[in-house]
Here is the input.
Amino acid sequence: MVPYECILRAGLFATAILTSLNTGQALADDKGDAFFKGKRMTMLIGSSAGGGYDVYARLITRHLGKHIPGNPIVVASNMAGAGSNVAAAFIANSAPKDGTTIGALYMGAIVEQLFYDKTRPTHNPLEFNYVGNANTDYDVCAVRSDAGINSLSDLFQKEIILGASAPGGATYDFPMLLKELLGAKLKIVSGYPGSREVNLALEKGEVQGICGQSWGGVAAMYEPMIRSGAIKLLAQEAVSGHPYLDSMKIPLTKVFASNDTQRAIMNLFYSQTSFSRPYVVAKDVPASRVTLLRQAFMKTMTDPALVAEAARAQIDIDATPGEVMQKTLAELYDAPADQIQAIRKIYAAK
Here is the structure.
């Protein structure tokens, strides 16, 4: 009869071998093509179809799969709502935690806890794993020529109607800063699903202008109208100017600040444009797989085919690695308390 101790040792040895094999296979799955091969991935876009965020996310979707080991199929799906927080909540709670669902979120959803003192029970933006950022935005204010506004300074004398999405979206939050901090006479009509719908309203004359929209999106949509004078660019909403817009003498909004305190507040608020198109996965996605997705993202953003397609569509590409964005976001949340409180006061009742 085989002693019990021998049987126990044999069983433990076999278990150790199986565990080692399983661990080795798991590592191979993350490092090679075993995990993603044959998988269907989802690019979940937190905005409506046709707007700037959607255009960028679908561009990346078309090229991402070939840079992920195993070459999975990547499909785009829209989940608009609450400034992309509906999509953020889905990623945090309902999406698979294996890296097969990537979220394309509004930057406002990432900073609302900081700037708007708004904590959501469904998710914490600091807990996402950041895959990368597609570009640095240079947001602008643009108006119809028949609005009777020739420069940003006119907005302190005459009220105009701006179209916007919702609190948390740049088309709402950025003009609200101008209204509450600088005293610009802006009537902000919110509730549009996304920038595409705001632009349609602008074309039809339902609203007179839009702020908080990226220059890339405005250039792609309105370049002929800008050249003809039908659409006027009033100002850049950014920490520093876009070279082309600077050459056109389009001023920064912060030059209209009346003191250093206001300028510091505007610089802090506009710092979010350095990660204006963030891509995230859930916090529980394995670290090795997050690394793999980050590497694939950066390879995608420098893919000659994507770069050429972006150039044809007049889309700026200025990618930030996910690990850099994660660090930048942590530093942003550690900004001076008095400046954070000043921004929170602006949006407290909005």
Notes: The radius of gyration is 23 Å. The chain is about 45% helix and 15% strand.
